[in-house]
Amino acid sequence: MKKNKKQVIAYIHTHWDPEWYRSLEEFNVRLVEVMDRVLVDLKNNKMPSFYFDGQVLALLNYLKFRPNKKNLIKKLIKEKKLFIGPFFVSADSFLVSKYSLEKNLELGIKISKEFGENEFIGYLSDTFGHSKSIFEILKKFNIDHAICWRGIGDLPSDFTFNGIKTTRLVWGYYQDVLNLCLSLDKKAEIIESILDKINEKSKDILLLPLGADHMAHFNNPKDTICEINKRLKNYEIILSSPFEYIKRADYSKLKLEGEFLDNSKTYILPGVYSTRTDEKAVNSILEFELYKKAYPFNKKMGNKYENELNQAAIELLKNHAHDSIYGCSTDTVHQAVRARQKSVEETIKAVQNRLIRDFKKKYLKKETTEKIGVFNFSNYNQEGEIKVLVDKKIKEGELIQKFKSVSNDIYYDIYKNPMTEDFHWFYEYLIEVDLINKNSFKNVKIKAPVKNHIIGDDFIENKHLKLFVSENKIYVINKQNNELYKDFISIQSTKECGDSYNYAPIEYGKILKIKNSKIKKEGKIKSTLNILFEENISLNISLTNKSEFFEIEADFTNKKKNRKLQILINTNKKVKKTIVPYSEGTLERVHDENYLLFENMPSKDKEELKTNSYPMNSYVYTNGIGIMTKGLNEYEVYKNTIKITLLRSIGIISNPNNKARGVPAGPPIECTDMQGIGKHKFYLGVTFNKKEDIKRLADNFFGSMVGILGEFKSFNK
Q1: Radius of gyration, CA atoms only, the chain
Q2: I need a labelling partner for 35 at 20 to 30 A (CA). Which of 76, 229, 395, 662 fits?
Q3: What is the structure's pLDDT at 109?
């Protein structure tokens, strides 16, 4: 045996996607078979430890079928043989809000500690790139180590990233060689080759994962590794855990800041940021309603409904497991995703209405249609318009809709049955409010609005902005500096042959022609201009008396397959840099504005082509223009334009002939529902305010204020 072999810390694991190419139920049955074997071998000391993928949802799913194993699991965790947590699910960090990521860690750590686990690594082995947010949030929870793979580029194995000691899985987490039907000599030869590649980027010690997606561990781990070690020329494998490795690794040589989206060495599969956009949009709205409104309102009212909101958060987090929120999964999976979204929506609505009921019972001073109590749940002072649903007419409000229903005072009275009560008219109004301080409550006298916006069949404007249609193009004037933007908004449709993981255009995009424009609604507070494009795609563009941004509703019925639909915003200048938010601030990205994916296809073997498309959460800012969205999570840079993806219609999880990616990324399962055939509505906001204003305006865009009709006692908690 060769002396002074380099030591390799190997950990046995499985990577567990709760939903992917099979349903949750199918994978759960498989999970039981996998974990039964794990527990037997840990108990019988056939392997020293097992790392359970850095998340606890799979463990909870296992215990639904094997509740009698709970004490054994606690014992193995105590003995440092089984490692769990810290996440509830392995979630993407670009497509979900910081509040969801924090709740994910909070819940995952709580559950882990209930099982006796107290050691944690930010295990991010398979997420498709890594945001700066996730590292900031790890620090918040006192986790100072992370293990990553995708998007890192050609870096050494160990470094400090955003203040977190980070290990790069140089050759990935997916190492199934010991499960293959090969001779021990051949297995050792393959492992030696893998370790040579890892060694190129490592120092005194190497880290080797042993495991793969949804797979049981290899047979007789201790004996097998002993035999493999006899055959290795330059390395000695020590079966242990990632915790043993991080104790011995040196993270001091290189310190970096930012995000990981470099696909030069690993695929980041960026097409997932635009797959199933309808679900992503709903998720974004639910996150805002839950974390920015329902939780704060409930806290102000004494946390009476904390358990109900926590349950809603859990159901929402289940959708954040990365294959689920990515959309690179079967139609059956996404039927379950949408069902959970509906469940969360109904729970939030039920709690919010009860909070309003409880607030009125305790603090209502006087029933009146002349005053309104307003909560501002934003971290910024806000003014503008709020929607109020009442069963009385408000003279100074702008009526949005009316319908028959039963009063919430009855509907949410557990001593009454609303089905037996008389239904009557309800009215939804838009009401203007002046400045409300951040995180506060204020009684506001409802005043007659002073209309200072105007609209015609081909234009709309207020004191800040003007938009008009001329010669089949949309023009905008930023009235703060009188800059004119010609052809400011357009719609592009591009045929493609990609898959859920990677966009692959087969032609240059086609700009859809404007058919006509007309007034959709003229109000005393808010007006809307309808611009109709080819394929009956409508953009309903709204301004209010006070609004500092255009609100754009894209409304259409998609009838086409295998294409990408984008809204293009012309910024008047080359887009060399963009700014996007992360949990604690903003991040600047630098772009090659002349790069176009179509002009660089096809990819070479085992290559994933670079794109000019990027993930975003809530907004992107460039050249003095801020573009806010409700869950449209992808933008593309090209020359003067920012392209926001509305819809990417594609019908296969992984296309083996995808010309943007050299090898398959998953199974070639067809998914009819992924084509997005049917009706869609998506929302954007466009502003010319300074970048410092965008987070405030994004809260305003989502609707951070809640109004309750009546005059109320003083309330600020």
Answers
A1: 28
A2: 229
A3: 98
Per-residue pLDDT at 151: 96
Assign residue 541 the CATH number of its domain: 2.70.98.30
298, 305 contact by CB (below 8 A): yes
Other Cβ atoms less than 10 A from the Cβ of 230: the count is 10
Is residue 436 a part of any domain in this protein? no
What is 449-500 written as a DSSP string? -----EEETTEEE-SSEEEEEETTEEEEEETTTTEEETT-EEEEEEEB---S
Secondary structure of 24-38 in the HEC alphabet?
HHHHHHHHHHHHHHH
The count of domains in the chain is 2
Q: Which of these three, 241, 267, 293, is where a domain ends?
A: 267
What is the Cα–Cα distance from 22 to 481, expressed in whole angstroms? 55
Given 217, 246, 267, the domain boundary residue is 267
Paired tokens of 456 = 């015609």
Q: Report yes or no on 326 lying in a domain.
A: no
Chain centre to alpha carbon of residue 449: 38
- Characterize 553-581 residue by residue with b for buried, 16 or more Cβ atoms within 10 angstroms of its Cβ, and e for exposed: bbbbebeeebbbbbbbbbbeebbeebbbb
Residue carrying structure tokens 């635009």 = 274
Categorize the per-residue pLDDT at 584 as very low, low, confident or very high, splitting at 50, 70 and 90.
confident
In a domain, 626, yes or no: yes
Q: How far apart are CA 643 and CA 79, in angstroms?
A: 53
